[in-house]
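WARN retry 2 of 3 for item q-0093 after timeout on previous attempt; input resubmitted unchanged.
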Amino acid sequence: MEDKSIKTLIVEDHPMMRKSIKLMLDGMKMPIVYDEACDGLEASILIKEKFYDLVLLDLRLPKLRGTDVAKIIVEEHPKTKILVVSDYDVEQEVAMLMNLGVVGYLMKSDADDDTLLMAIKLILDGNKYFSKGIVNIWDDFLENKSKGKVTRDVKEIITSRERDIIRYVCLGNTSEQIAAKLFIEVSTVKTHRNNIMKKINGKSVIDLFIYAVQHHIINLKDDFGISEYN
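OK item q-0093 returned
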């Protein structure tokens, strides 16, 4: 029988906040099951061990930053939806998380039970949710991205797994071959490839190849025996 439960990970270092979130989840009329992590390192271990449909992620975490946890989630399970629940709203960090693929950002000051419940439902239905103060950053980010003005730090959030996939693609491997080499599902490889093309604003493998050369993911001389690149 197919397991239709919504697997959720709560990543929050404050016990009272974790307790509040768990009580809210317990009251939802949805088949939600959850694990919890009190620091970034514990969260990263759980993420590497199993798949979660949804991660509720604080950013100010001991042992490993929330932004680093988000990168691990995207690298290991690109289909997992990330809802940041935090009081941290530095614009550059928020924009980086948005470019990484975070689909929700809820300020803790706004995170009453009703609002958190609404945000979770919207995200699980394939929508995005941002607190009022974050909406302005999101709008600015989209505008800058459409104009090609996204800063280098934001635009180039390529994870180590994505670098591996870029390299394999440029070396002529199919998605099936890459999946076998990395011991992941073919669908996961395809999701990574789609995310990579969005991040680099690429339209073809040629764009990916140029990006890989410019960012030293492949070496024309070592990998292809080409001594010069014009």
